[in-house]
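FIELD: query
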Amino acid sequence: MGKIIPHTVGLASCFFCSITDGLTPIKVDGGITLEIEEVSAGKPITVGETMLLPIVRTSISCRNVNSGIVCSGSKNLVGIVIISPKWKHAINVAGEEVPIDRYTEQVPELKELLQGM
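FIELD: result
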């Protein structure tokens, strides 16, 4: 998925697996902040001929604090794409139907998956 990239922040080094092809450090108040966000397709669940494909947002943030570093991350469900031989639907976390295009723009591999079905 990504690669291990060391980054020096203050006196500490932050080693973690990047979820993108590269990291962009952002200068904040004289320090350095690393913020990464990615929307991707989760592990599909198949029930009979119907596939449920979760769409998830993964966020990672690292910032220097005094002479150390604080890193945090989260993974949250954004929506679900429901695929069956007869129809394709997408719903958000509130349970409202949304256009599938909303997720295919954010998750390129989803478009490829939908074309193959």
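FIELD: remark
Confidence is low (pLDDT under 50) at residues 1-23.
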